[in-house]
Amino acid sequence: MISIIAIDLRNPKPIYEQIKDNIKQLIITGALKPDEKLPSVRELAQTTSINPNTIQKAYRDLESDGFIYTVSGRGNFVAPSPKNVDSKRLEELYDILRAAVGELSYLGAAQSNIIEIVQNTISRSRPQGGNKT
Amino acid sequence: MISIIAIDLRNPKPIYEQIKDNIKQLIITGALKPDEKLPSVRELAQTTSINPNTIQKAYRDLESDGFIYTVSGRGNFVAPSPKNVDSKRLEELYDILRAAVGELSYLGAAQSNIIEIVQNTISRSRPQGGNKT
Amino acid sequence: MISIIAIDLRNPKPIYEQIKDNIKQLIITGALKPDEKLPSVRELAQTTSINPNTIQKAYRDLESDGFIYTVSGRGNFVAPSPKNVDSKRLEELYDILRAAVGELSYLGAAQSNIIEIVQNTISRSRPQGGNKT
Amino acid sequence: MISIIAIDLRNPKPIYEQIKDNIKQLIITGALKPDEKLPSVRELAQTTSINPNTIQKAYRDLESDGFIYTVSGRGNFVAPSPKNVDSKRLEELYDILRAAVGELSYLGAAQSNIIEIVQNTISRSRPQGGNKT
DNA sequence: GTGGTCTAGACCACG
DNA sequence: GTGGTCTAGACCACA
User: Which of the listed residues B45, C52, D67, D90 has the most CB atoms within 10 Å of its CB?
Assistant: First the structure.
């Protein structure tokens, strides 16, 4: 059961993106275990006061990105550890990483600080094991 | 003089954002030095075949973000090292950083790989000195 | 006796369609001979952990398509070679064929490869003889 | 400009799928050339009397499948010949091919007939050249 | 009860 | 003018 889905309507980021980010986070940190059931579209729509169509869009995106899978008539479930990762997505993430680190550094953030956050984030994620380049 | 402004029209990211990212990158890596003159709106519009309004919006944003400053009638120039950094922007960047690292790690990227990229990016940026947390 | 009924719950295709496809395949390839008895609805439901209603719907469809026949109180049996074929179904199949071959070709599949698969499939099917256009 | 988009509301296949199939067909056969502009969402919605949201869904699917690309604020355009083809999609198509050919053969379609249709379809598609397995 | 499809209609960002 | 997002509300297929 998910408890923390925080939506900020004033945030310019689309609602369905915020939902995606939230759920991704829960999956990455292991708060949601593989094959665990996600709240149904309707249920989440009710608890968040977001339109079901918007929730559904977030779920469909998450499915096509391999984070969850859908069983017709049953619901949505957390996908097991990803296998065939889209190399484009990896490059995209590395680009985002470089841009963020570059700007942080330029704005005066201490190197030690950045590295520490990166390491903490890594150690908190990937509770399922499995390595790849 | 700027030579590499790469715009991808197919990219869903707005063009003015792509321009901002490009110029930020040039400033962060020191390819553009403090107080160096940027190409005029008109000039950049011509060389890139982008609508001048779009260029202008990018410049306006960069100015309000403290990356460049405008001298009316003269043109736009690279700002010196930033002083009063918006703490909200820093938090935003840290969030982006955490999300990207988390997802990379989850998708199987090696920790060594991530750390290496972070360190390389840091060492390549901030040629102006000055540290802050 | 049927041994291989592979159901993938994650597949968006309805379960009863998957069952139909499976059984059709077994009939077409001759793994199930004419007048051979199919497992009962109850039995198949048990071995596959699928709702009996779902199995029944698949059987009903297969009967109306002429692949099996039902003897009330006895069970379901493989129909002998089809005689009066629904011409609409044939047109439908030709359309599917054209669409699949067209897309394969467009996506770069070698002509030789496609033809080979088609010929292999033909030679492996229709063990009962009987030709029609 | 597209003229022939035939939608059959009685067809159980979802409308957006019919639209996708139609446009795919036009692209595969070369009726729509690479980089040619597709009708806008609104325009196609009007000429077909289909809701714009439904058209948009079809377009988004086509984009994620690599058949078209979207330029924000400009419209949708036919993608050039596909490069990195999803191997899962190829397998899916081969499966569809096998199933259709198998059933056709079983229903009595002449082998010569099937092969002829396959060859005609291949020769009519892929006007851009380029081979792959 | 679950997700999937579709419509009508609105507002916004972009260029 | 273009696509993108969001809502409200409806109906259907599936299990």
Answer: D67
Half-sphere exposure of C101 (CA within 13 A, CB side): 30
**Integer distance in angstroms from the first to the last C-alpha of chain A?**
33
Alpha carbon C74 to its chain centroid, in Å, reads 22
Closest residue in D to C127 (Cα) is D106
- CA–C1' span, B46 to E2, in Å? 55
Considering only the beta carbons, identify the residue of A98, A100, A133 that sits closest to B93. A100
Among protein residues, the one whose C-alpha sits closest to the C1' atom of E1 is: A73
Q: Which domains does chain A have, with CATH numbers?
A: 15-78 (1.10.10.10), 87-124 (no CATH)
Q: Do chains A and B touch (3 or more CB pairs under 8 A)?
A: yes
Q: Which chains touch A (3 or more CB pairs under 8 A)?
A: B, C
Tokens 């075949």 sit at which residue? B49
The candidate with the shortest Cα–Cα distance to B106, out of A100, A78, A129, is A129
SS3 D59: helix
Say if the Cβ atoms of D105 and C113 lie within 8 Å: no
pLDDT in tens, chain C (133 residues): 556 789 999 999 999 999 999 999 999 999 999 999 999 999 999 999 999 999 999 999 999 999 999 999 999 999 998 877 889 999 999 999 999 999 999 999 999 999 999 999 999 986 554 444 4
pTM, rounded to two decimals:
0.92
Q: Rounded to the nearest 5°, which phi and psi values hold at D65?
A: -90, -5
